[in-house]
Specification:
Length: 189
């Protein structure tokens, strides 16, 4: 029985691995402030075009700088802009957030668990693993998207997130690198 379980898990991992590598990702952009610090931040964005939600890879135009703030002096810091408020979210295993639009332009940092984002009229999808590459921005508000997107949390564990709406609903300055979610090679790791 344990061999069968291992075989099923192996097949599932192979499937997921094949699925991830089937994306044609561009080479990683140069983002080094120096040997250890990135220069820019790329993140997956849920945006909208012509009333339909989209997934895009954004590069924020603010750049990392060497921090002089006590406690982090000498590290890389990047301003994400002003925020309205912040909330900590605990999503139970297997939770289905349903189809919805972003209630505000907001950063979402998943720091544990897994989020699966799909679009109602598209085959595009994003798998966001909690952790160092778990930051996304949701900008498909009612003002720009008719239907929104669907988010499920298929992990066997809780998914933990920090939701930070931007002040005044501002979309941060950015460049769209390409349609579809950012690839791992474009992220901070």
């Amino acid at each position: 029985m344990s061999f069968l379980f291992f075989l099923c898990v192996s097949q599932l991992l192979s499937l997921l691995s094949a699925r991830s590598t089937s994306l044609s990702c561009p080479p990683a952009p140069p983002h080094t402030l120096n040997a250890t610090f990135p220069q820019t931040l790329n993140l997956t964005a849920i945006s909208a075009t012509n009333g339909a939600s989209t997934l895009e890879c954004w590069q924020l135009t603010n750049h990392f700088a060497v921090s002089t703030t006590p406690g982090q002096a000498g590290s890389a810091a990047l301003s994400l802009g002003n925020a309205n408020s912040a909330s900590y979210t605990v999503l139970p295993p297997g939770f289905n957030g349903g189809m919805h639009r972003a209630p505000a332009v907001q950063y979402v940092l998943f720091f544990a668990g897994l989020a699966h984002i799909t679009l109602p009229n598209s085959t595009a999808e994003a798998w966001v693993h909690g952790g160092r590459n778990g930051l996304i921005i949701a900008a498909d508000t009612a003002a720009v998207s008719t239907l929104g997107h669907i988010t499920t949390y298929p992990s066997e564990e809780q998914t933990l997130g920090l939701v930070v709406p931007t002040a005044g609903g501002e979309v941060p300055p950015h460049v769209v690198l390409h349609e579809g979610p950012c690839c791992t090679s474009e992220m901070l790791i």
